[in-house]
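Narrative of accomplishments. A recurring question from our advisory board has been how the design workflow behaves on a single, concrete structure rather than in aggregate. To address it, we present the structure tokens for one chain from the evaluation set, followed by the sequence designed for it. No filtering or post-editing was applied between the two.
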């Protein structure tokens, strides 16, 4: 890493750290550069990420590799229909001491980690999914009237399969809104698939090195929040969010296909994502292009489409692009 003191992080140091993280992930993960970039932006923003893609595209492996590269405490939770909330948060157990007295002791669950992989999150029941709500928003866990703080930094990276819906429980809008970004994981190209086969079926293995730690990530988070947002860009973001609601939108597709638009969290995601995108480009101010670069990831899970959109195969990404073209940069 370029800077030895994270508290004195510079724009160049920020870019160097991000480049080192992406390069190290690229040693193991083939392609998926946009997915890696969006996930990294969300982590530096201090937010959670939902990765969606068909099986076998490396979603779980990407998150596990990210945990190794960032040298963070990593925990994986495999979500299943029989998973209970206590399996995530932990529970109080009875212990008998040396003096014969019995007392309750809290046994921490797998949520107590820096980087938590919620694998196939939509396979657990709503009761179990809701166990993540407090952790994701407040970064605490409450069990038996006691509140326990989670480690810092804390991120939830969740995966879900958009095709196999039998036996799944779609995440409610309130929980989706707690994810800073939703990232679609695309199928690899033919060239990328050739490289994947060469790496996974040959003799040569890849050793992942840690190139950043929690202290460095925290320093990057603090620096990102110090990036100024011009008033005209901030106003643009506010108008974008208002325009996601069909009654106040100049975008034809929003008027026709959106049932309910984004919440104020969508604006926060656009600002934080824009700040980090600007830093990654070597700039210390946010532009319209920085906001538009993260718009799809910040809004695609916050727009609730109506039945007509589903019947015609209209996706939220198409609606977001129509929105960006309809809202003027004043």
């Amino acid at each position: 890493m370029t800077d030895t003191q994270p508290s004195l992080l510079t724009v160049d140091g920020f870019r160097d750290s991000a480049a080192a993280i992406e390069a190290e992930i690229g040693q193991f993960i083939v392609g998926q550069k946009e997915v890696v970039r969006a996930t990294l932006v969300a982590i530096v923003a201090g937010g959670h990420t939902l990765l969606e893609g068909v099986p076998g595209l490396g979603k779980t492996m990407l998150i596990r590799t990210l945990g190794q590269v960032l040298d963070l405490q990593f925990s994986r939770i495999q979500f299943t229909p029989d998973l209970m909330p206590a399996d995530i948060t932990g529970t109080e157990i009875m212990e008998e001491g040396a003096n014969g007295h019995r007392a309750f002791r809290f046994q921490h669950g797998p949520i107590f980690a820096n980087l938590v992989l919620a694998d196939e999150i939509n396979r657990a029941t709503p009761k179990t999914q809701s166990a993540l709500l407090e952790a994701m928003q407040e970064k605490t866990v409450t069990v038996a009237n006691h509140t326990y703080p989670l480690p810092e930094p804390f991120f939830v990276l969740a995966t879900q399969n958009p095709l196999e819906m039998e036996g799944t429980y779609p995440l409610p809008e309130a929980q989706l809104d707690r994810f800073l970004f939703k990232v679609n994981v695309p199928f690899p190209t033919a060239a990328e698939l050739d490289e994947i086969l060469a790496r996974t079926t040959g003799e040569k293995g890849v050793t992942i090195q840690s190139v950043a730690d929690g202290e460095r990530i925290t320093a990057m988070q603090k620096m990102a929040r110090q990036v100024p947002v011009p008033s005209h860009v901030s106003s643009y973001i506010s108008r974008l969010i208002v325009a996601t609601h069909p009654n106040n939108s100049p975008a034809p597709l929003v008027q026709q296909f959106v049932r309910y638009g984004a919440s104020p969290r969508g604006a926060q995601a656009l600002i934080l994502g824009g700040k980090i995108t600007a830093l990654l480009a070597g700039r210390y101010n946010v532009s319209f292009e920085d906001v538009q670069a993260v718009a799809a990831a910040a809004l695609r899970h916050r727009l609730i489409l109506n039945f007509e959109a589903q019947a015609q195969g209209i996706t939220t990404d198409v609606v977001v692009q129509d929105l960006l073209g309809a809202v003027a940069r004043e």
